[in-house]
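To close the chapter, one final illustration. This time we ask the reader to focus less on the individual chains and more on the assembly as a whole: which components sit near each other, and how the overall shape emerges from the parts.
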Amino acid sequence: MAGFGRDRGDRGPGLVGALLVGISAAKALALAKNLPLVGVNHIAGHIYANRLVTELKFPLIALIVSGGHTELVHMPAHGVYRVIGETRDDAAGEAFDKVARVLGLLYPGGPEVDRLAAQAEAPVEFPRAWLEEDSYDFSFSGLKSAVMNYVHNAEQRGEIVNKADVAAGFQESVIDVLTEKAMRAVDAFAAKQLLVAGGVAANKGLRKRMEAAARERGVELVIPPLYLCTDNAAMIAAAGTIDFLMGKRADLSMNAHPGLSL
Amino acid sequence: MYEIITHSEAETISFGARLAGLLKAGDVLVLEGDLGAGKTTLTKGLAQGLGVTRTVNSPTFTIIKEYQGRLPLYHMDVYRIDEDEELGFEEYFQGDGVTVVEWGSRIAALLPEERLRISMERLGERERRIRLVPEGGRFVELCKELRK
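The assembled structure is written out below.
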């Protein structure tokens, strides 16, 4: 942090205890080394993680998909964020984790579901939650329930569940919705880039589908390598640099904001 | 004690909204129920009843989410938490709002003595049994109010 000549603390959103640890450390360093302090939004961090891979082009659409977040963000310019859609219940990563649990897979379940899905021969047909026609919001708890009902009903009938087929069916439903809404947003906002960030960006099925859809539309797809997809400090630094260059500063009274929005 | 059977998400939300009307600052609700039983759905109802306008979604990964209604609403999910993790829960419990803790029995030792236990049971694809068990005089009174 000190090497950049400035100190960044992730001030939200998130778990207040964790945020306070980070903020206190950043403040201590800023005070000790007489460096400017910059507060950074965690979601912005996920978006700017992509900047560590390639330069951002505006307008862009960012899809943040993790265990804790599922949001579609429109950025007309650096540091300007408009959340156009979010999950109304479970985040995509959370849905993966819960379905994995239903299937008896080990934690973390997401990568296991991804791996099993690739082996499926006859994916189970599960519903897609499209919501209202022009909505960019998401909903995965109905899908989660559908998978649970399917597995429970099969077990009650004494049938063996083909985990790969269930995993693939579930994953296809998630990917269909994520891809359709992201691409619709790209079209609607004439985006030059589509960024995908957060832990679910590591999903091979999702990457493959996004790559094909992006190529078809001629929009540049940017997905960081796995170590930058999940929570990390570098992404906060990347986002903080933009804030710093835009003149944003925090003072030593900077506090944690668990519910901070972009 | 109070029990109700709901036949749809909308009914669960409606019940949550009704219950919210009886809640006060400092109330702690412990929500139990299997995956998919409707804990977050019930919480959406509570939020609606408290006048929260923001979308209430699942805190399974973020652990705690904060909302503002006529009272603050603190929505927690401690499924992924160990009892000995220091996350400052007590401040929420003793605070100025209503705290809802999904899977709260996992942190039983940290919960206040007075609390309202709500268990949700899946009876069918859409049907749920919601059972309220009061712990402490305040919630015994609340259940009486509900039965009226």
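Chain B touches chain A at residues 35-36, 40-41, 55, 57-58, 60-67, 86-88, 125 (CB under 8 Å). Chain B has one domain: 2-147. With these observations in hand, you are ready for the problems at the end of the chapter.
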